[in-house]
Amino acid sequence: MVTITLMSDRFDSIDVLFLGTGAADWPPPYPRPAGPTKPGASRGFCSALIDGAILIDCGPTVPDAIDCFGVDRQRITDILLTHTHDDHWNLDAIRRVAGAAQPINLWAHRSVLAAIPDIDGIRPRETRIGESFMLRDIAVTSLTANHDVGDQTALHFLLHKAQATLLYATDGAWFPKDTWSHLMQTKLDAIIWDATCGQTQGDWRIFEHNSVDMINLMRQTFTKQQVLSPDAKIYLTHLAQSLCAPHDEMTVSLAPQGLIPAYDGMTISITHE
Q1: Element (H or E) spanning 18, and its range?
Q2: Model confidence over 27-62: pLDDT tens digits?
Q3: Which residues of 58-91 are buried (b: 16+ CB within 10 A; e: fewer)?
Q4: Which residues of the chain have pLDDT under 50?
Q5: What is the pLDDT at residue 108?
Q6: What pLDDT is recorded for position 100?
Q7: CA 57, CA 89: separation in Å to the nearest integer?
Q8: Where are the alpha helices (DSSP H) in 88-211?
Q9: Strand, coil or helix: 111
Q10: How far is CA 29 from CA 42, 244, 263, in A?
């Protein structure tokens, strides 16, 4: 079961703080000092903080979002990098985060590590497709994402803690076969899913990003193949300003489909019961 609460102290839950839920067409700078005035009014570039310590992606709006939402930078020990597009990776932002607590491990595919410079306070760590490694009490598995980054490999991340399992899947469109084969062996309690195109139809970005229609088709297969737990929740992120309806409208229109648009500052606690 998945509940939406403030960050919990449960040892068996995966706690997520959305630091950014926008695609690359949301213009910086990030609202300061208090963040967006209401959910979805503005969106930082896509990022999430897991259990207060593991940062997924670090684009240019992330340090300001960290300040807005009261994150203790000293607790951040690891960064999981999906890919190096400018909205997910920014050298100045990485340096600002790394300056708080040293050293921080930067986990990425070898093709990504080869493309980034040495950074003070950052220890590069290779993550291999389909292989798991432990961060604190969370097992992390890197999976191939269907997203064009030239000669680099973009990643999704599968997170497992106690019995709870979360798939963080952005950026990307339809899952590649090797990713689907791995997911067939899991039982997901929640998915944080790329929904760049929202409910727009006919947009060319579906070849490396999802629309709501695509997510529903994939969810049908996940459900039929029993990959989703009965109470699994789906959260939508990486929402394009130019392709998605305002947050309140999306929330209402997608509620009957069981899809939950995320917003900056939203917290969720994922458990398995």
Answers
A1: strand 14-20
A2: 988 888 888 889 999 999 999 999 999 999 999 999
A3: bbbbbbbbbbbbebebeebbbbbbbbbbebbbbe
A4: 1-9
A5: 97
A6: 62
A7: 6
A8: 91-98, 110-113, 177-183
A9: helix
A10: 10, 20, 17
| Continuous H helices in 1-155 | 62-68, 91-98, 110-113
User: 147 CB contacts (<8 Å, ≥6 apart)?
Assistant: 83, 154, 171, 172, 173, 208, 209
pLDDT of 212: 98
CA–CA gap between residue 227 and residue 235 (Å, rounded): 16
Structure tokens at 80: 């999981």
pTM above 0.70, yes or no: yes
Exposure string of 113-123, with b = 16+ CB inside 10 Å and e = fewer, is bebbeeeeebe
- The residue whose two tokens read 């309140």 is 248
Residues with Cβ within 8 Å of residue 79, at least 6 apart in sequence: 54, 55, 56, 57, 58, 94, 97, 104, 105, 106, 107, 122
pLDDT of 5 reads 36
